Amino acid sequence: MKKIVTLIALLIVVVAFPQNFKPGKVSKKELEETENALNPKSNAAVLYREHRTAFVYNQSKGFEQVTNVFERIKIYNPEGYRWATKKIKSYNHGSDREEVSSIKGTTFNLVGGKVKKTKLDKSNVFKERLNDYFMENKLTMPNLQPGSVIEIEYTVQSPFLGITDIPLQYEIPINKMMVDVKIPDFYVYRNYANPQASNSFTFEESDKNIEVVIRERSGLGTANYGNFKRGGGSSGIQSYKERRYLLEEVNVPPIKRAAYIDNLDNYAAKAVWELTVIKNGNGIPKMLSNSWESVSKTIYERDDFINSINNSSFYEDDLKNALGAETDPSVKMQIVYDLVKNKVRWNGYYGYFPEQGTKKAYKEGKGNVGDVNLLLISMLRKAQINVLPVLISSKSNGIPLFPTRYGFNYLIAQVEIGGNTYLLDATKLYTTINVLPERAINWQGRVILPDGSSDWVPLYPDFSSQKLSYVQAEINPDGTLSAKVRGRMGDHYAKEYRTEFYGKNANDQIDGMDKNGEDVKFSNLETKDLNAFTKNITLSYDANATSLVETINDEIYISPMLFFAQKENPFKENTREYPVFFDFPKSDKYNITIKIPEGYTVKSLPESAKSALAGDAVTYSYLISESNGMIQLAVAMDINKPILLPSDYQFIKDMFGQIVGKENEKIVLSKI
């Protein structure tokens, strides 16, 4: 049944720029600008951003979502060059794909009082497959200089109904912004702001009547949801309303980066669009009532997901040899975990579906997150271990605001043995059971039960990671300080150390150790169990410092925390609009002994002190004493609650300020 369709009114995305922001018309005034009036310390600023989305009718495809983006950005200094790199992500899997086109870019510079343009060459636009589902177009603007103005524009055509979140705030100020979204009324979206953002904006809404003539040559049409077709054998006019959402804003402040934050994008202003109803050509609605339960079940029941768990023939011999006669479930869990980590390495791609299939990943020794952890789940089940898949959103993916399969992009395993629950991720060689990579620790995950139902499970650890340091120090006659240090770190602290130093020799480890801004040299480093991932790391080394001891007349001044003292308060803002994330519960302890030099006595010591936040979320103790020619200091800091609310911020800031002050107080020794 071939149809000839004539459109009386055609939806077209027309880029109609305000008079002062026509592409290619950059003024000398913009090029001569040396700082942003809204935020003088900013390295760059968006002079104008325009985002237009509309559903364009295509005779062969029906309605297609088309988005045009235009940005003009001012670069004030070299630190702002990063805003001249653009990454455009698009869905691309099988026959379902979005197309990125019409990528254009121009760099404007003021040379000899004249405006010089440098066009972006197509050869500098690189297209890369991120994983089995997404492509990325990446470009970097040419001929960048302090003072440059750049323009970037592109189009994304999508066959999908889901509207991508529209950013309304960056880390740099936005002088002027316009967002224009046009939607046929047979698609009903709920539009709302990011509830975690401190800035929110209101769209103006209006309706416009649209008419489309459909002429059918013969045959019987159907009433499809989402793209109308007129039934019968005669011509007719299809009428509908187009709803327009328009936002125009000026002087949008930047979102501020701060210490101890999970993902800054979680707190940036953005427009979120949730599809709730689809109507057919006759106006009959179909309600979309997604829930996390239904999203999880849909993922779980897909063939490539469940088949990856059930397919075991290709590894059965290896698994049997690895397990031997072992019957203890906890030992079997560790054996399987080590087998997968050593057999298949993560290729850097995320995803909860397998990219190439667990069999191929096992054979080739590499795969995406889905390949690796579905294989882990499959092997654990084959070993008679009670294991369930857990869908999560990685830290970089943020926190989804409504149920959608795109809200998940990662997969781990949950094991239950003897009433105890364990979380496992085999994508990193030196992670251990219950010690997830940092990228996977993001609020909560969705565990899927055997019947397809699901529930939330917390991802933050409920145990504290320990770091202990024992120091014996003495002040030398030449005013330098020598010390012997022994340390031990476990769980997440050990994972962090291995992340930085695994595979490196002692000299490389010394070069990378934190000297805390002091003139100190480390030597004779010995590390134990760096490669034994289930054990704590222990280390010992010598330290020699020339900047820690200050001699004035007959008195010696020294901070007893030596090169471990916190130098500044990481919390500098007067207020904070998002939570404080300490990543994991932790316990830091220091036991420091300083030998009093011969011929000196203690004139004064810092006072001992203790402090705590409400509910012992954070506790700190500083206990110092002198006995038998020795000064002994015991410092303990425990962060028992890894996430603290903005309402706690002032208390946290004050407490850390007191800690910094205490740890930089001096012992005063006087000559006898």
From TrEMBL:
It comes from the Bacteria. Gene3D superfamilies: 2.60.120.1130, 2.60.40.3140, 3.10.620.30. This is Uncharacterized protein. It comes from Patiriisocius marinistellae.
